[in-house]
Design a protein that fits this description.
This protein is α+β, with helices and mostly antiparallel strands and 325 residues long. 32% of the residues lie in helices and 14% in strands. The strands form 2 sheets. The chain has a 5-stranded mixed sheet with strand order 1-2-5-4-3, sandwiched between helices. A 3-stranded antiparallel sheet has the order 7-6-8. It holds the Pfam family YqcI_YcgG.
Amino acid sequence: MPENKKRSSGEKIESALESIQEITIGDTPEWGARSAEQFLRSVLSETDLFPCTFGVAAARKKTLRLGYVDGTDRQDDWSRLPDLLRRYLEEYRSLSKETSLVVLFRPEKEPLPMDAYRERFWSVLRYLVAKDSQPWPADLPADPDESMWEFAFGGTPVFVVCNTPAHDRRRSRRADQFMITFQPRWVFEGLEADTPRGAAARRTIRSRLRKYDAVDPSPFLGAYGDDDNREWRQYFLEDDNNPAAAGEHCPFHTGAGAPVRSEAKAGADWTVVVNGDGQYSVWDAARALPRGWHAVGQPDTREACLDRIAGLWPDPRPQLQRGAR
């Protein structure tokens, strides 16, 4: 019997792998098939249970959708993303309540620092809103500091999750490349925290998180609509449970209301940038970033940026020489 069970598990994974083209929206770049296979094997493992049971069910039922962005930080690289999301949102209700769109970005040769991935994530969301042909939903708060706020695209509220190669202890948010998952708010209807199904799902997910991650579940994981819950804090979880790392204000704003961010400082004309080799510098915030460099955090004074670099980059030697004796 155990042998048959193992074979059955393997067959489920192989069936999912065979359906990669079927569940893909848009073109598949040369690296896409391998990245999709790694992702699906991780989600469908029956020996190392992935915490998000909704994602596991979607992968098994083939109601999950995959998309690819053949680039990393340049907005030109992201140009296909709005269409991928738009096409998914046109069909998601016909798929299943257990569905999501997973977008894989081109793998990088070397992982970037967490700050760079965080800034990229929020930049992508701001880019999507700028490219959205529909206005922000009138019945959805524009201020991320409200408990009923959620990201939206094409008039649809969407919960968003980011996974990165920089995550280590929080394995549930780790991926071999930068990855964003979009889940329409609709899929959570009937799974509210005060419903039996919703309460059971949360217990199962939290139990799996404790076994899967090397860090306790984030204190930011909450229920939509609760007074003390802020959805944006769940989108990009840090590798530890230090609340200061996420910042006090959401880096995102909709354009439908006042931007939610700290007041600009006088002389905040500079920004910290990092390249693929993990080297940091300061850059004029008004100028376009050079190719291969990524902004880290919000603009600040030059002195503040230099102080931040001192903390982020304790070893300025080239990456290959670090740790050499």
